[in-house]
Amino acid sequence: MNQWKEYRRKFHDRAVRIVERMTLDEKIRLMSGSASWEEAQGAIRGQFVRHYNETPNQAGGNGRLGVPALSFVDGTRGVVCGRGIFTCFPVSLLRGATFDRELERKIGIAVAEEVRYAGGNFFGGVCVNLPYHPGWGRMQEAYGEDGCLISGMASALIGGVQSRGVIACVKHYAFHSMENVRHSVNIICDKRTEREVMLPHFQSCVEAGAGAVMCAYNFYQGDKCGQSSYLIRDILKGEWGFDGIVISDFTWGITDTKKAAEAGMDVEMPNTFYYGDRLKALVQNQELPERTVDEAAVRIVRTVLAHQARGGRTKPADQDFAKHRKLAFQCAAEGITLLKNERGLLPLKAKKKRIAVLGGLASLELTGDRGSSRVYPPYVVTPLQGIVRSAAGAEVTYYGGTDPAHAGWLAGRADYVILVLGNDYASEGECIETDRKNRKHMGGDREAGLALGAGDQALLDAVTAVRDDAVVVLSGGGMILMEDWCEKVGAILLLYYAGMEGGAALGQILFGRVNPSGKLPFTIVRDENDLPKIDWQASQQRYGYYHGYTLLEKNGRRPRYPFGYGLSYTSFRLSGHRAWHSGGVLYASVTVKNTGARSGAEVVQLYVGVPDSAVERPRKLLKDFQKVRLKAGEEKDVTLSCPAAELAYYEEKSGAFVREYGEYAVYLGTSSAPEDLVVLRVMVPDCNLTE
Amino acid sequence: MTYSIYESISNPTDFPVNAFVAAIESSTLHWHNEYEMIGVLKGSIEIRVQSEVFTLGEQDVLLINSSRIHALKALGGQTCICMIVQMNTSLFGTEDEKIEFYLNSTREPAPKCEYAVFRKQMARIVAASMKEDRCAQFRLRADACILIADLFEYTVYDSCYSDGVSVDEQELVISFIDYANDHLEEEKILEYGCRALGVSRKTLDRNIKSFLGMTSKEIVDNLRLEKAKGLLKNTGKRMDYIIDVCGFGSEKSFYRIFKKKTGLTPKDFREKGSMEHYDNELKGYLDFEIPMARELLNRVIED
Fold it and tell me: How far is A403 from chain B (nearest CA, A)?
């Protein structure tokens, strides 16, 4: 049992006693949000002067018996509340690219401190959806395409958040990785996909002790996730033993009082509509046993009391906000990913150079979409500002217009050209309706495809026509196809959405003050046809067993840039690869040496495959990773591990995971590409004999 | 550092826009912080902006960006009548950002609107500047803001930050022109100038050539000529005095250079017409007869 569950259990008896003293009305009041219908509707569409979540959304609570309300603060890139106060961290996708759990834990602590400052006790910003297709509008809120990476980073965030008395809420449970039809799409998939691909990272978060889970809008196998007995009662609470609070997504998260209550939905958010009087009537008419309400009430009270008792009363002071901004900078610096660097073009030498910065995105505040995760920080350093700050001694000319001829002319007379291209809140993100009558929206899935927009492509063409050494900086929270142009440019940096300090970090990377160490948290394919088939307007969508690098490996397709890939300004050598099995755990160790002339960081990655498996499987899956920082010439030993149980496959017939014994293939290296990995064979004997 | 070729532009009001009609004969190379927009109303004019030379006729319009070294010269032996709007950079953006507009009806890139939009707007501003009623001050401000909005909306523009590299290149050229202006009487001005600036003749010429597209000798001849023209028009100084202080060396070379550049002998130039208000402060913009200016402006506005 995880330590958080054990800890919360200590509050069980007290919670039961409190709930026993409550009237039915009081118990039911615990189970829904206190926003008005108009607030809930208007705020989501951004029609109010106050933004969505300007102050924490309140739900439940009981003053008479001293039960605090849930005070919901949204995320994922920081605290959504207020304006001009809170820290905007890089989006989860960039944080995934750091491959650094410890850094993510620190971000969790910082976020929780700010949640408390905002008056909240509940952070709704642990998003662990697995992007089945990298055109998903909200992929920026995911840590990447891989379940192990998502589990590792989300668990770290949960640990950090909950260490400061704030409940971490994991979302959107489950199968949520289509945006435009999120309210209507029915997801289907086979059991192995469900159990091996789409759900394990949710289970990891439960095991990491998360105190709350938010259900998704979409349907799974015909049931709305927020009222799916299969997902909530059977799997989440039953099989995984989740003891915390289940909440609905905001408005339309549930649409059937009885089904939702029976499934185990504890709290309707953010307003009372399907619960409240409707729920009371069901109990009074004996259509729903009062026990169902009692159980939900106990869970809510137990969880709130337990987490409240954990948190000190400290609120962050000014110097803490400064510290958090430094952390936002550090995270951006560690996540921005260098994909290409021909002939050591980067870092740029600024002195006495003319630098042309092209592309309108360079002067925008690129913090991500403008949906429910939008943070309103006191300032945002744009890429252009960051470049100007770091380019001491250089002359920086910025052209944000769209005339390709002018861009080409500027490019021709500059010493260096930096193109900032890609996406922003208008072209991807949460789907926000802007004009109901004409069915217009901003953000959403990338239905037009994953290539650069026509304007960006024209700028790029104009520049590559006059020189082959442009530096391309890509903004965006998803994959951008680059097959047509990546050979025509000198360097490619993936900026993602790098938070309020993102421009500063970019500038320091471009000019060498910071050595990049981000690694791709998703695969960049050569051809859109290498991706799973998806219909963004579907009423029903099947998720297949393979996606991302597992799909490419199955089909024998080479990616343009593989998952886990990223360059540094220094070089590393891995030696002394070893792998062994002990006590039901696979281990692998390697010595990493910085063989270049400057400090840097490398991410050692462990992938495991089961070559002689009884069932069809991915060739390999990421199972562990470790970021290691090394000074020039320094070397360190890194040991990674993976419980053999994680390599069990799900057998539909028995409804259970089956462990296999025999030879496992252990891949150890610095990306998912075969040339970056050393393969070792390890015998895993039958655990019944050895353990 | 102050440069003598720096033109300080004064405004009649506290609003940092200076708009007027001027009859232009010629000017020496100069620069100022203000953006300068020139629209030809009558005649034609050759404008040098650093190393590029443009010929503007009626209907044309040109924006000279802040701090660009430029010179004007009327063509066809006639004065050229232009409307000029000078706008302080403080109206445009932040201090660390220097915006450069590309608006030149004789060159690409074209704006997203007709050039006439800019000409009309300039004419409105200049017309307002010629009125004395109370509302005209506000019209001028409003119209100037519309002009700036039009520039941002319709023209191609880029922004320059920490323009150290260009300033360094420009500095030697400006220092040389300053030196030359102060020492025109010296016959060996190029030799002394190089010594004073601590550069070789070769370095000086290479810099001037790349920055202005001219030779140092051409610049000196040009400066001497303009000084001589001013003295001929505005003073009764004797020829030998003028030859001396302008550093032409001999009467022969004075006549040769003067004839070549103006098509006239110095004597004919002095006697031809009277341009009484040749104003050294404003580098060659002449006061112009007001009713005719109004008529020309109205033609642009109503066109």
Answer: 8
